[in-house]
Amino acid sequence: MRLQGYDYAAEGYYFLTICTKDRKPVLSEIIYGSECAAVRLTDYGKVAENYVKTIPGIEKYVIMPNHIHLIIHKTNGKSIVSDVRSLKGLTTKAIGVCIWQDTYYDHIIRNEKDYLEKWKYIDENPAKWAEDEYNA
Q1: Residues near 6 by beta carbon (within 8 Å), at least 6 away in sequence
Q2: What's the structural domain count of the chain?
Q3: Domain of 92?
Q4: Is 18 helix (H, G, I), strand (E, B) or coil?
Q5: End-to-end Cα, the chain, rounded Å
Q6: How far apart are CA 39 and CA 32, in angstroms?
Q7: pTM for the complete prediction?
Q8: 4 located within any domain
Q9: Is 58 helix (H, G, I), strand (E, B) or coil?
């Protein structure tokens, strides 16, 4: 699934999506208000958020019911693979059971337009949950 030959420790911006096992909605619930939608984290979601915040270079994230979207600015030479493995491992250890799908989606952000599109996608994701491809 990774881009062959690409150095995922290279400085740059990355958009990641990490899903729960079988896409079970264990991380949060979406609360719809009259004008907006909000995310209410479950206990598992709160644990995941604690570890998301420890990833160096996190610029933006949203924790949806069954997945997490992140924008990361890598500058430290540590690979994205290592960051994801650490997030999944620490969360699993804290919760006591693995809630994660084995794989994850990554996208190398190539320019400012791409960056702004991903930023907007994260902002709007809770409001679009009912139509979300991960809401199976």
Answers
A1: 108
A2: 1
A3: 12-127
A4: strand
A5: 22
A6: 9
A7: 0.90
A8: no
A9: strand
Instruction: Tokens 């991380």: give the residue.
Output: 27
Q: Looking at the domain assignment, is residue 132 inside a domain?
A: no
Are the C-beta atoms of 108 and 6 separated by less than 8 Å? yes
The predicted-structure confidence for 17-72, as pLDDT tens digits, reads as follows 999 999 999 999 999 877 788 999 999 999 999 999 999 999 999 999 999 999 99
Q: What is the CATH classification number for the domain harbouring 61?
A: 3.30.70.1290
Largest Cα separation within the chain, whole Å, is: 48
- In a domain, residue 3? The reply is no
Q: Is residue 37 part of a domain?
A: yes
Tokens of 34: 């009259």
Element (H, E) at 106: strand 105-109
Q: Which residue has the tokens 């791409």?
A: 114
The type of residue at 107 is H
